[in-house]
Amino acid sequence: KAGVTQTPRxxxxxxxxxxxxxxxxxxxxxxxxWYQQTPGQGLQFLFEYFSETQRNKGNFPGRFSGxxxxxxxxxxxxxxxxxxDSALYLCxxxxxxxxxxxxxxxxxxxxxxx
Amino acid sequence: AQSVTQPDIHITVSEGASLELRCNYxxxxxxxxxWYVQSPGQGLQLLLKYFSGDTLVQGIKGFExxxxxxxxxxxxxxxxxxxxxxxxxxxxxxxxxxxxPTFGRGTSLIVHP
Lengths: 114, 113
Description:
Largest interface: A-B, 24 and 21 residues
Helix content of chain B: under 10%
Number of strands of chain A: 11
Low-confidence stretches of chain B: none
Shape of chain B: globular
Number of strands of chain B: 12
Shape of chain A: globular
Strand content of chain B: over 45%
Number of helices of chain A: 0
Number of helices of chain B: 0
Radius of gyration of chain B: 13 Å
Largest sheet of chain B: 6 strands, mixed
Largest sheet of chain A: 7 strands, mixed
Order of helices and strands of chain B: EEEEEEEEEEEE
Oligomer: heterodimer
């Protein structure tokens, strides 16, 4: 099976712009989670989508949003970018059902905000 | 709420030496426990996991971890470290009620030749 893919791998934006990141999960996985990773804060959970519905949400402002499509692919959007949004954004997929707590991670999207 | 503590931010070992990375968790019931490794610029790769059963778990790349309920620990070990093991290691804990694991802050492993 192909692994989790994320596009783009690298992105440079300026403050105030918005950005959309994409994640394609492993075939058959219905859960997609997003994380923000920074040197200062470590891995922070953004949100999780399961069957096109947001099932869990972390403690991030409303500028961070996401969605999931019927094929389980997910997008994450950040509006009005701030310098502090510079980070590695990781996507992880899992079957999302009872007993399947293991997450499979993509390579990440490195976002730089100037 | 569940939580994970990785007390060591950095660990330095010589190639060929043994390794133990510490992980302590806080959770009321039997947790799901994971160790992930992250190489620079990459995503996280699962090394091993504990759900139930034998408390000594074998993983990939020669790693193992032992679940000790009395100490709320899940330490990662490797008998002989290779230079390619230099990376960031994350311990994570999950519960039956949540599909989202909680990650520790990570331990950076430096391997000297």
